[in-house]
Amino acid sequence: MTDVITIRNFRPRDFQKVLDIEYQAFNEHRPDLYMQFYELNADTFLVAEWQVEIVGFIVGIEFNGIGKVFSIAVHRNYQKKNIGSILLNAIACTFKSKKINEIYLEVRESNYSAYSFYKKHGFVSIGAQPSYYSDGENAVIMKKILY
Length: 147
Description:
By secondary structure, this protein is an alpha+beta fold. 31% of the residues lie in helices and 35% in strands. It has one domain: Gcn5-related N-acetyltransferase (GNAT) (Aminopeptidase, 3-Layer(aba) Sandwich), CATH 3.40.630.30.
């Protein structure tokens, strides 16, 4: 990929593309939440574009001065091309600009590649949430200090 990846705010017309990526990436689906998050935190819902194609997204939530990554996904044809890193860095910059200095997220215990990805980006494990997912799997809670 020699073209530039563009990060921009989600627009309602992006909804179906985001859902397509979400359905491809995850076992659990809550499409209703995406528009709710957009309505509540439009500036922390970002998409990655390559040429004119949406190839990834990240949904951040701001609550009581704390940032949380609700969801991040990259289309399978564009994985391992640094897009996830670009999205994660973009949401960190957005949170920093809002004077938020902590980001939290949850990751499945069995998702070793995602866990390693987050560790590579400065997140540390701070605990677990038993039976967090609908199939009963635990979540690892991770945190990153921005400044």
